[in-house]
Amino acid sequence: MGEPEQTGERVTFFRAVPVFDIAQTDGESLPEVPREPITGDTHERFLEPLTAHAASLGFTVEREALEHGHGGYCDAKAHRIVVSTNLGSVNAQVRVLVHELAHAHGISYKDYGREDAEVVVETAAVIVCGALGLDTSGESIPYIAEWGERGDLEAIRKHAETVDEIARKLEQACGLKGGE
Question: What domain count does the chain have?
Fold first, then answer.
């Protein structure tokens, strides 16, 4: 018997592994994961192109002192995005602006429900900020987990195409070629 013929085709195999659903468990809720604030001003250069992108969508970007815990909001009716001046760093402002711009791309509570909308826009923000070299995981992952626990983390899977589409548009607005 000779050597098998090599065709150059790649074959992918999957291994079955045991999994469980959190619904199959008993006990107390998982502890809240503390958020790590985003610090620094290394990504200030992205505020201008993100603000210009907001304008291209018909939105103004304003800065106001908001209550603690509120980084910003998107008012689709007034075509206005507000970023808090109480965030503590320019990099945190970039993250919030990306998040609110994802809402401005049509991710509304009315169309998606509040839980899914927040999971979708923050997932897009993680992707965009990561592409910009800004690690927001210490803030974003607990945020996504909190909303996902209230609603459905399945939102990421269900709306993955939308998340990717919005992330690419925001990456392009920041000058990343082809959204990469």
Answer: 1
